[in-house]
Amino acid sequence: MTTTSSSLRIWAPAAGVVALIALTLTALAVLGGRTLPDRAGPPIEELAVEQTLLTPGEIELTVRNTGADPVRVAQVFVNDAYVDFSGGATAIDRLESSTLRLHYPWHAQQPYAISILTSTGAVIEHEIPAAVATPQPDGGFFGLMTLLGTYVGIIPVVLGMLFLPTLRRIGARGVRVLLAVTVGLLAFLAVDATLDAFELAKESGGAFGGPALVVLGGLLAFLALSAIDHRLSRDRTETGGLRLALLISIGIGLHNLGEGLAIGTAYAVGELALGVTLVVGFAIHNTTEGLAIVSPLTRRRPPLGTLLGLGAIAGAPAILGAVIGGTVSNPELSGFLLGIGVGAIAQVIVQLVPAVRDKAGRLLDPATVGGATAGLLAMYLTGLLVTA
After folding, report:
1. Secondary-structure percent of the chain, ordered helix, strand, coil, rounded to 5
2. How far is residue 278 from each of residues 76, 108, 126, 275, measured CA to CA in Å?
3. At what angle do helices 139-149 and 240-268 cross, to 10 degrees?
4. What's the angle, vertex CA 239, arms to CA 235 and CA 243, rounded to 5?
5. Are 323 and 368 part of one and the same domain?
6. Nearest to 100 by CA among 131, 46, 58
7. CB-based burial of residue 229 (10 Å sphere; 0-12 exposed, 13-18 middle, 19+ buried)?
8. Residue 67 contacts by C-beta under 8 Å, 6 or more apart in sequence?
9. How does DSSP classify residue 1?
10. Most confident of the following: 27-31, 46-50, 148-152, 313-317
């Protein structure tokens, strides 16, 4: 029997089942609705404000229908005063978005309560705590985001990697303790990012899953990094400590993508305190990430270019995150990207745990417990210095 014939025998029944399912779903779509009674209650109208842009004399809202029924915007009020607006003239179907432009002479630093009245009388509330002109994505904006990403991402990570010569002087027990410190550092990052991700997801309208997107991002990143690890483990040139260092760099890089996202978003709404405190706080906090990257390299002497490449992988995503956060203010996207960082870090921890065990296979002895505790406390205490 040929390979082709064998494949046909295997897949032909499955293709038949798929065709039957498609036919059944089509019939249900065409005929099923006619056999059910109409809903007795009022229309379910829900709108989520995904983005707010403020320019002189205008407030622009991007809204998405997260309910079951189409929504038509009838009137808009700002601080209980009717305002002229454009957009939303046609009904917004489920999961579709529309842009409302409110012609309103807002004043900087003032709070505004916006009420969107639908054609059926439902009211959707949106609050602007303090009005700030939305930064324009010009050369100056991208330059500033690049500078911020470099300050809080690349420079601190590279500085932390300078501890490598010192770390090479410790023995095998010291390496185990150092790797336990790395596990503690990464565990704190994962927990902190998870809390931030779910908090952001709650702010979304849930049109595309809300908190479920955080979980999806985490699982996808975990599986993707597992595949990368499998590929590297087959490549004899990327074994041992260098492979772990690369995985840690990728995991921290995905985390810093979310960190940069938070910075860019805070800047866009005027909540970012630019200055020495921001730069120094992030520098001290993220220097520990560089230490985590070089921890598996105490028994190797990689070239300088490799070390700089690891630092760029870990730190440069902060620049991309800052640009995305400053231009696309979407809680669900933010939650998804933070979830990706959590999943990547979780996979790196899984890879590090075997290296922490001693010769007897013990994982939790006083030395490694102390190392992991030190890592957790270091991230917590340096995190108190971060102002964004």
Report:
1. 60, 15, 25
2. 38, 23, 30, 6
3. 140
4. 105
5. yes
6. 58
7. buried
8. 44, 45, 46, 47, 94
9. -
10. 313-317
pLDDT at 33: 66
> Which residues, 6 or more positions from 208, have their beta carbon under 8 angstroms from its beta carbon?
95, 332
Judge whether 191 lies within some domain.
Answer: yes
- pLDDT of res. 83: 92
Contact 272, 377 (CB under 8 A): no
**Domains of the chain: total:** 2
Domain of 105, CATH number, reads 2.60.40.10
Q: Which two tokens stand for residue 107?
A: 């004043």
Burial (CB < 10 A; 0-12, 13-18, 19+), residue 288, is buried
Domain that holds residue 79: 47-128
Q: Are residues 202 and 105 located together in one domain of the fold? A: no
Dist CA 164 CA 124 (whole Å) = 55
Instruction: Say whether both 230 and 310 belong to one domain.
Output: yes
pTM of the model: 0.73
In which element (H, E) is residue 15 found?
Answer: helix 3-27
CA distance linking residue 257 with residue 195, whole number of Å: 16
Q: Contact, 252 vs 188, CB < 8 A? A: no
Contact 246, 346 (CB under 8 A): no
pLDDT digits (tens, 9 = 90+) for 77-119: 999 889 999 887 788 988 888 999 999 999 988 999 999 998 8
pLDDT reading at 1 higher than 60: no
Task: Classify residue 33 by its DSSP letter.
Answer: G
Question: Looking at the predicted structure, is the pLDDT value of residue 173 above 80?
Answer: no
Length of the chain: 388
Pairing status of strand 112-118 against strand 97-103: unpaired
Q: What is the 3-state secondary structure (H, E, C) of 307-372?
A: HHHHHHHHHCHHHHHHHHHHHCCCHHHHHHHHHHHHHHHHHHHHHHHHHHCCCCCCCCCHHHHHHH
